[in-house]
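Appendix B. One record, verbatim.
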Amino acid sequence: MSFEVDVAKRLGEAEIAVSFASDAGVTALFGPSGSGKSSILNMIAGLLTPDRGTIAVGGQILFGEGVNLPPEARHAGYVFQDGRLFPHLKVRPNLLYGAGQGETAVTLKEVVDLLGLDALLDRWPRTLSGGEAQRVAIGRALLSNPRFLLLDEPLASLDRARADEIMTMIERVRDALKLPILYVSHNRAEVDRLAGQVVAIRR
């Protein structure tokens, strides 16, 4: 499944513009902080409307040519830098929140096994390390039965050991589930390890 993105958006004094096509397992948007990488992800997710352009994933137009699908119709699994787990729910209900249906949906057991979450299921988010919380956030995104994944700086707040752990999890997801992944980072080592194609974003 491929990403085809050609969009522009003015935010304040800056214009964010990008054009790329990729069918790599992981496509990275790489560039310095403040260059608009997260805004591009938000346009693809439907959280920010481009001023012009087109967005298509797997041949389906999400934006452009008179189309502007709402976020819930785009079926993106979005993982933010801080995980954004629900603090009032333990890990198991966090994972199952918004779980998808259908023949292609992965099961809780499949996600738990893939990401090594079994020992975390009955814990509260506040008791998790940063790496554990990100594994749960990735699992929750996978259980929503997404067509593609958007990962916004998922390693930015982690130490090197935890970051390496999450990169291994992302590689497992890439290889086992074959979901197209758009990965935002300003870290060259992460991009070199994970991405099959790199899109450079500049200020």
